[in-house]
Design a protein that fits this description.
single chain; alpha+beta; GMP Synthetase, Chain A, domain 3; 3-stranded mixed beta sheet; 3 helices; 68% helix; elongated; Ribosome-binding factor A; ribosomal small subunit binding; RbfA_dom_sf
């Protein structure tokens, strides 16, 4: 019996978190006019079991840590307003307090992917460069050997 209640609570908080993520993404994209925030992606939302708090994991496509911190501070200062906008869209008795947290995993993943792509491209360039040089060296060596073989066979006749 206790297990079923716990499972239902978890699924409800997860459903609320998913809906909150969707609503936050729409509000931040359409309704927020603050130029300090710019383009923001809501990666995940983690709602507490009592629905009093929600950790909102966001990403800005910026590499400069100072700019990221400014954007995060702008979101944090706008959190009560954002909460009000989202509360109007969701039918909850208690609207969780929003706590914005910068999530660098997406940016780090993109950075790692770019590094891997660069290494692959450099490796291909080296293979083409050395591969064509090796082929020309092989042609020269084989060409000389073939010519030597031809000379030897002509001399035997």
């Amino acid at each position: 019996m206790v297990r079923n209640i716990m499972a239902k609570e978890f699924s409800r908080t997860r459903r609320i978190a998913q809906q909150l993520q969707q609503e936050l993404a729409q509000v931040l994209q359409r309704d927020m006019k603050d130029p300090r925030i710019g383009f923001v992606t809501v990666n995940d939302v983690d709602v507490s079991r009592d629905l009093s708090y929600a950790k909102v994991f966001v990403t800005f496509f910026e590499e400069d840590k100072a700019v990221v911190q400014e954007k995060l501070n702008a979101l944090i200062s706008a959190a009560p307003y954002i909460r009000t906008l989202v509360a109007g869209r969701m039918k909850l008795r208690v609207m969780p307090e929003l706590r914005f947290i910068y999530d660098s995993s997406l940016v780090e993943g993109m950075r790692m992917s770019n590094l891997v792509s660069q290494v692959i491209n450099q490796d291909k360039a080296k293979q083409q460069q050395f591969g064509s040089e090796d082929a020309s060296v092989e042609d020269e060596v084989l060409g000389d050997d073939v010519a030597d073989d031809a000379d030897e066979t002509e001399g035997k006749d």
